[in-house]
Write a structure and sequence with these properties.
Blueprint lengths: L16 E2 H6 L4 H4 L4 E2 L5 E4 L6 H5 L8 E2 L1 H7 L12 E5 L9 E5 L6 E4 L2 E4 L1 H8 L5 H12 L17 H8 L7 H8 L9 H12 L6 E2 L2 E3 L5 E4 L2 E3 L4 E5 L3 H4 L1 H16 L3 E5 L1 H6 L1 H12 L2
Parallel strand pairs: 5-6, 13-14
Antiparallel strand pairs: 1-3, 2-3, 4-5, 7-8, 9-12, 10-11, 12-13
């Protein structure tokens, strides 16, 4: 019968830990090779079977001077990243870029400011966004920027400190910066919205703007003829009373949300509004078809 490894001391039970820290607590090399431990990175151990994210497994690599940057910092700020951008962990060291398997090391940038988020050191939202400008396409950079500057009408108890930054603060951080990605950052900055609420909604808005529909409003309140609140809608053309809404998976993931949206849209239609629903397949598979549908609704 396999021997059960002896329990680790309490400081090493809750999260991944460094081998050096374990040695300081008197843990033997043999114990660090036991079957209940994984080695996600060189010099790091974690209890096997725990569902941890890549950044959590890399926390012991940070040490005193390092911090998370790039897409890893963006993930910690909740940015809606494309799948390919989160493939590796990004760690910044002001002195020398770290080298570890599954870690992309970076030297510190002149624009970096470091704060604490989720208990770890990360680049602040403006410097995180400018780091993303080096690797993301324009539309995804705008979507991440929209998330960071979003000023919600109602605060989310899970993340009450919104907005994470402002367009003005990002613009000030960019002054005098000439690093890689600055051109796409300048273009994206002019397209940011404090009202956009999701990555597809940002992409849909950009699609309509490029089609010349520059009078589109983002998530405004819709009122009836007596000034009473009817609803809020994703993208709105007030003059034509047309609303364009991204229809996500709420009908499959939340029956309550689905029913709420049905009632809300019915109230809008009763008030004379036309609604153009856009699904992911259309937005990403036939964007010009979406443009034609919206133009027909607008009579343009």
């Amino acid at each position: 019968m396999p021997r059960v490894p002896e329990p680790l001391p309490p400081p090493l039970q809750g999260a991944p830990f460094g081998v050096a820290a374990a040695g300081g607590l008197g843990i033997s090399r043999a114990r660090l090779r036991a079957s209940d431990l994984d080695a996600p990175h060189h010099g790091v151990r974690a209890l096997r079977g725990r569902a941890l994210s890549p950044w959590e497994l890399a926390v012991p690599l940070l040490g005193e001077h390092r911090y998370f940057g790039g897409a890893t910092a963006a993930h910690l700020w909740g940015c809606p990243l494309p799948a390919h951008a989160a493939a590796v962990v990004h760690i910044v060291d002001p002195r020398r870029a770290p080298r570890h398997a599954d870690v992309e090391g970076h030297r510190a940038s002149s624009i970096d400011r470091v704060v604490e988020r989720s208990g770890v050191r990360v680049t602040d939202p403006p410097s995180t966004w400018l780091a993303l400008a080096r690797v993301l396409e324009l539309d995804d950079l705008v979507a991440c920027g929209d998330h960071l500057v979003h000023d919600p009408p109602q605060l989310d108890p899970a993340d009450p400190w919104r907005p994470h930054t402002t367009i003005a603060v990002i613009a000030a951080r960019m002054e005098g910066y000439r690093g890689r990605g600055i051109r796409v950052a300048r273009e994206a900055l002019a397209l940011l919205s404090t009202a956009a609420e999701s990555r597809p909604e940002s992409h849909l808005r950009l699609l309509l703007l490029r089609a010349g529909m520059t009078d589109v409003l983002v998530n405004p309140e819709i009122l009836d003829e007596r000034g009473r609140f009817i609803a809020r809608s994703d993208l709105v053309f007030l003059a034509e009373k047309v609303a364009v809404e991204y229809d996500g998976d709420q009908h499959r993931t939340s029956l309550a949300q689905y029913e709420h949206d049905r009632v809300r849209q019915q109230r809008m239609r009763e008030a004379g509004w036309a609604i153009v629903d856009v699904r992911a397949r259309a937005l990403y598979g036939d964007p010009q078809g979406v443009v034609r549908r919206v133009r027909r609704a607008l009579g343009r």
